Amino acid sequence: MATEQSTIAVAERPARAGEGVAGRRRRGGIRPERVLVFLILCAGSVIMLLPVAWLVSTSLKEPGQVFRFPPEWIPNPVRWQNYPDALTEMPFDRYVANTLFITISNMIGVLLSSSLAAYAFARLRFPGREVIFWILLSTLMLPQAVILIPRYIEFRQIEWIDTWKPLIVPNFFGAGLGGVFYIFLLRQFFRSIPWELSDAARVDGASEFRIYWQIIMPLSRPAVAVVMIFTFLDNWNNYLEPLIFLSTPTKFTVALGLASFRGLFSTDWHLLMAASTVMILPVVALFFLLQRYFVRGVVLTGMKG
Questions:
Q1: What is d(CA 255, CA 70) in angstroms, rounded to the nearest whole number?
Q2: Containing H/E element for 254?
Q3: What are phi and psi of 267, to 5 degrees?
């Protein structure tokens, strides 16, 4: 009987200990530092959302209400007609189709070129690997505007100006927008994958390309999702390169279409804000759909140097 009572007491001890910890937490309440951090984050969120709120507000105003002082956050009256007017004044369906074609093509090019280069730097051993990688990484210090003139001269010599080729082809060779950065991100993730998987595949007779395509890439979905999101954002919002390389209106992208609302002497701000609101919706939707992969990929790509 005594033995049974002692066994019951020992079994109930952890539960009572847990109840004591939970009770102390309940008695302690919410810690002040957590409340302070929460308030700071809320204030920062409000500050970051103010431009978006002003964008939506201006898109629903009459032309004479845009610069009224004091500002009106809630339009009166609300002018929903700005949206159909903005989307029909310019051939935005054509601009969206052009931008989607360029963006999807670049996503394919970046996925192939950056992942192959990252696999070589992360998983293959060859002389001068680290030196070549650091030389490649040093090109991140060069702003795109610095190399824009040499690239324009090069593309003009091969008669690529006023075509989509300067906006697409470099991404298939890791030389497009953010190409080196994407190589760096994927390399960091590839280095965190256990080497035993590759060694086991080689013992079974798998080639390097098969190891890359059937083992490394399926395990790297979070990092690939991050690269795809960044590539989509870079190309959807790209303004400078289409402005330099394109001149035919039927080949314009969304960014150039939005700039068309700004005239020489006046700007249709209410229409520009309405079109801008519509054009940021795919970006917002993409982020919320892939937010889990995005955050996980950003965290994991920095785990191993």
A1: 30
A2: helix 254-259
A3: -135, 130
pTM of the model: 0.78
Q: CA separation (Å) from 257 to 60, 93, 266, 279, 281?
A: 20, 10, 16, 11, 16
Residues 93 and 145 in one domain: yes
Distance between CA atoms of residues 221 and 13, nearest Å:
45
Number of domains making up the chain:
2
CA distances from 103 to 75, 176, 201, 247 (A): 35, 12, 35, 19
Query: Prior bond to 70 cis, omega within 30?
Result: yes
Please, how many CA atoms are within 13 Å of residue 289, restricted to the half-sphere of its CB?
A: 9
Per-chain mean pLDDT for the chain? 82
Question: Of 55, 83, 111, which one is at a domain's C-terminal end?
Answer: 83
Both tokens assigned to 230: 């960044």
Q: At residue 279, what are phi and psi to the nearest 5 degrees?
A: -75, -20
In a domain, 305, yes or no: no
Q: Do residues 257 and 282 share a domain?
A: yes
Average pLDDT over residues 97-115: 93
Please report, for residues 268, 273, 301, the alpha-carbon distance to residue 54 in angstroms, rounded to integers and kept in the order given. 16, 9, 35
Tokens of 210: 């098969």
Does residue 106 have a pLDDT over 80? yes
Q: Which residues form the domain of 282? A: 86-300
Whether 11 shows a pLDDT value over 60: the answer reads no
For residue 26, give the amino acid letter.
Answer: R
* Domain of residue 142, CATH code: 1.10.3720.10
**C-alpha to C-alpha distances, 120 to 22, 114, 128, 135, 159, nearest whole angstrom:** 51, 10, 12, 15, 33
Q: Are 290 and 147 within one domain?
A: yes
pLDDT: is 189 or 27 the higher one? 189
